[in-house]
Amino acid sequence: MVPSRNSSVVPLSKRKIACKDCSLFQICLPVGISEEELERLEKIIQRRRPVKRGDHLYNSGDPFRSICAVRSGSIKSYVPTEKGNEQVTGFHLPGELLGLDAISQKIHPCSAKALETTSVCEIPYEQFELLSNELPVLHRQLINLMSKEIFEEETHMVLLGKKSAEERLAAYLFSISMRYQRRGFSATEYYLSMSRNDIGNYLGLAVETVSRMFTRFQDDGLLTVERKHIIIHNLDRLRHLAGAMPCKSDGNSFCFTRS
Amino acid sequence: MVPSRNSSVVPLSKRKIACKDCSLFQICLPVGISEEELERLEKIIQRRRPVKRGDHLYNSGDPFRSICAVRSGSIKSYVPTEKGNEQVTGFHLPGELLGLDAISQKIHPCSAKALETTSVCEIPYEQFELLSNELPVLHRQLINLMSKEIFEEETHMVLLGKKSAEERLAAYLFSISMRYQRRGFSATEYYLSMSRNDIGNYLGLAVETVSRMFTRFQDDGLLTVERKHIIIHNLDRLRHLAGAMPCKSDGNSFCFTRS
DNA sequence: AACGGAATATGACAAATATCAATTTGTTCT
DNA sequence: AGAACAAATTGATATTTGTCATATTCCGTT
User: Fold this and answer.
1) What is the pTM of this model?
2) Which of A135, A150, B100, B206 is least buried, going by the fewest C-beta atoms within 10 A?
3) Residue B118, min C-alpha distance to chain A (Å)
4) Which of A105, A147, A153 is closest, CB to CB, to B104?
5) pLDDT digit string (tens) for A172-209?
């Protein structure tokens, strides 16, 4: 059942919702481009009909055709390794892009699976390239976003290489908080769309360890957890538990927050 | 003491070694651009005087000014965390770029330190941007290289999240082998410019564990190790030991090699 | 509403790797 | 060349986290 957001006349997948009317305008690809440029970009952006939970946006090995931006819902990227085994490489929340790892090889190294009913904007890469010849600002914006992704993956490498189980989960929850906050949602109360299994996989921990850490956090009064529903009571303490993290302060300076 | 860079006739730093005469032409930024485009790019590329072992190319927090390409030698990127503590985020061999994580924030999140006497080409980013307005191929090439870096960081995440100590070191050595091979050097015999400490740090292992694994590999007859000098006797077995790895086969297909 | 399978939680135990300590070897500086 | 320091190796032990087993809860399906 598709919710009532597209009730009356035009189905969601056909309805042209302009980028400038999108709640994600500030954090998606079009940020910082002029109205006229935006209009030309919008002409090539496709809005897919929502994908259901468990559906794949693409699979590892598929040819790369377009960059995707999450509009609502959430996506998990993972590298399938051996039979049944996989490594989760990232979660994509609204306003975030995915598929950037496929540009070079023209083939998707990861699979992308919807964690819930999710709608995405697709930007066909060939057309994007053509348009970028005239509008270098598009390339520039993509480069910026890719740079940010490289930086974030480095942050995650620090997590996987240096942090304890407790620090990992704390850092993870804090990161989710910040990302939700950025798009205008509550930083302290949300539903986790991914399973404990996915979280553990992403953090390099066993499922059981993740469970135990949730329990410990709750026993410590740091948060309340009821399955996927999370209420964080002390965001500051959570950040401290997460340990040192490279971060961009809102100004232009760069800092490392230690505990 | 400044070395004899302006001694005899033409100092190294002033000498124009054309990109097309560089041994790294095939793997550096200029790949796949026309002669005329290359000439214009070369005008903005600066060749720094070699940096000595231990010197920094830039420090965490420094303003971002240019992308660097390693010409010879090697560089370690690391995130300084607390006092003395650090997380190594990558090693850069000849033909490889560094600093891509700083484009977005305009500030370097990592420090970059020479592991040996190293020379780099610097591409001032502002000028690169201006030139790219006229030559979109430059942007395109940068995007390709960034995409490749994102992919490689994902591969490293799989290593940190899923692999045993043995697999990690094997994967690391195999990766070094492939990268040397690519630039025309021996894949089976080389000097590691980085310390065991750096290797362990990068792989999320204690120094002692790295040492023990080297010993084990040698006892197994897989390789001969004499401090930094490595001779690999069975590259195929090394790859098998490294476990499943996402890789681009030379064609256009995508595969996962499982041991 | 009842069933069945999947996800989560919790406890007991095992294993891999980190930590600590001591020794050897190599490198740098005077 | 020798002294002092740093890096690497090796062994003994500790600790964290993974694995296995079991119980419980939840959710989707019939």
Assistant:
1) 0.89
2) B206
3) 24
4) A147
5) 999 999 999 988 899 999 999 999 999 999 999 999 99
Strand partners, B69: B97, B121
If we measure between CA atoms, which residue out of B25, B121, B102, B8 comes closest to residue B61?
Answer: B102
Q: What angle do CA B204, B206, B210 make, to 5 degrees?
A: 95
Between chains, do A203 and B110 touch, taking CB under 8 Å as contact?
Answer: no
3-class state of residue B25 by DSSP: coil
Place of tokens 């001969």: B224
Q: In angstroms, rounded to a whole number, what is the distance separating the alpha carbons of residues A183 and A27?
A: 8
CA closest to B203 among chain A residues: A161
- For residue A120, give both structure tokens: 């995405």
| Cβ within 8 Å, pair A256-B107 | no
* DSSP-based three-state secondary structure for B255: strand
Q: Which nucleotides of D are covered by protein (CB under 7 A)?
A: 7-12, 16-21, 26-27
Which pLDDT tens digit goes with each residue over B183-217?
A: 889 999 999 999 999 999 999 999 999 999 999 99
Residues contacting nucleic strand D by the 7 Å CB criterion are A 164-166, 204-206, 208-209, 227-228; B 195-197, 207-208, 210-212, 214-215, 225, 227-228
Q: What are the beta bridge partners of residue A224?
A: A231
B207 nearest nucleotide via C1' and CA:
D8
Confidence of residue B253 (pLDDT cuts 50, 70, 90): very low
What's the gap in Å between the CA of A151 and the closest CA on chain B? Answer: 5
> Considering only CB atoms, which chain A residues are within 8 Å of B132?
136, 139-140
Pick from B90, B39, B159, B80: nearest CA to A204: B159
How many other CB atoms sit within 10 Å of the CB of residue B185?
Answer: 13
Size of interface A-B (CB pairs under 8 A): 176
DSSP symbols for B184-244:
TS-SSEEE--S-HHHHHHHHT--HHHHHHHHHHHHHTTSEEEETTEEEES-HHHHHHHT--
Report the residue of B82, B129, B139 to disrupt the A interface, i.e. the one with the largest count of A CBs within 10 Å.
B139
* C1' of C19 to CA of B193 (Å): 26
